[in-house]
Design goal:
With 341 residues, this protein is of the alpha+beta class. The chain is built from 9 helices and 10 strands.
């Protein structure tokens, strides 16, 4: 992906946050109670975005219908990207824990958290009481993730993975336990991607035959941006974004300022090894695969002060993305400074 396109994507993500931060000068003295059903009560006008105080049947069906449609669309896209072209076979299990430096497991944790938080928000908007919404969201997240695992179980290239199901449960419980303990999310699970282009690195084997690392990168991670966002573990980082102000409510820390801990991997071009075949020859990319740990500032976007419900909704949708920021990286036994991660 070109530098211009990458900058455009970053700008689209940053624009709503920057606008909201600039707009907060008029409301900077406000500190909202995010344990409430409606944190903006008394400061924002009531409209259709205001969470219902009691069960609202039409909103409930709207939430269920919207979620079902979104998941159906996601499922179709996932089938086209992940399963199309592979044969079906009888249901079977598969131990994939050692693969991809566990980046796929981190992705399962993120996705289950995303489903839990989204389902909970929709149910609370429809007037469902907190305990019922909390545990319904837990069930929804694991049901949706379980359907993906079932598809894996019938695919010749994969299998039903117990470790994936464990990661799904862990991600959903990150949401559920926080809501049970604190009635708010003091820690978010987020994802980022640097949208890097496929590498252009010539690889020569012992027979003198040549291949390009970009060939296997495209084969395994795809070409279009959506596919690469899901699959390219080298470009992807999963974050635990912690809100210090929530743990120190009497402090003067901004409610929107977070500290994020990230996990990523580099030089990963195969499940176990960076090897592949092309034209009857075998190739191997020699640099050693390694894990990366990051520490970076972050924004809790939906906690940026605003008097407009649609702004908070937009920021809440973007809350699953870790915005680019300077980061401290630890990998290969050393610390590195990164301008953006």
């Amino acid at each position: 992906m070109s530098t211009l396109l990458r900058a455009l994507l970053f700008s689209l993500l940053l624009a709503p946050a920057c606008s909201a931060l600039l707009a907060q000068t008029a409301v900077r003295s406000l500190r909202y109670d995010y344990t409430l059903r409606d944190p903006l009560a008394g400061t924002a006008r009531d409209n259709w975005l205001t969470p219902a105080a009691e069960f609202n049947r039409s909103r409930f069906y709207t939430s269920v219908g919207s979620g079902t449609a979104a998941y159906a669309g996601f499922g179709v896209g996932l089938y086209s990207i992940w399963y199309k072209g592979y044969e079906l076979e009888p249901f079977h299990t598969f131990n994939d824990w050692p693969e991809w430096e566990q980046m796929d497991k981190a992705g399962h944790v993120f996705t289950a958290y995303f489903f839990s938080r989204s389902a909970f928000a929709g149910l609370r908007w429809a007037g469902i009481k907190r305990p019922a919404a909390r545990y319904a969201a837990l069930g929804v997240a694991n049901l949706l993730q379980g359907t993906i695992e079932t598809m894996d179980g019938f695919s010749s290239n994969w299998g039903f993975s117990l470790s994936d199901m464990g990661a799904n449960l862990a991600g959903s419980l990150v949401f559920t336990l926080q809501d049970a303990l604190w009635h708010e999310q003091r820690m978010l699970i987020k994802v980022s991607n640097d949208f890097r282009s496929p590498p252009d690195i010539l690889v020569t084997n012992g027979n003198g035959a040549q291949s390009n690392l970009g060939y296997i990168d495209r084969q395994r991670f795809g070409d279009n941006p959506f596919e690469r966002f899901l699959k390219d573990y080298n470009a992807q980082t999963i974050w635990l974004s912690i809100n210090p102000a929530a743990f120190a409510p009497r402090s003067r820390l901004p409610q929107w300022l977070n500290i994020a801990i990230g996990y990523g991997a580099e030089d990963v071009y195969g499940a176990y090894f960076n090897s592949w075949g092309e034209g009857g020859e075998r190739f191997r990319y020699d640099p050693e695969r390694y894990r990366q740990w990051y520490l970076s500032p972050d924004l809790y976007l939906s906690r940026i002060p605003t008097k407009k419900r649609w702004v908070r909704l937009t920021l809440g949708i973007l809350d699953f993305i870790k915005l680019p920021a300077p980061a401290l990286e630890y990998s290969r036994g050393k610390f590195y400074g990164r301008w953006l991660r």
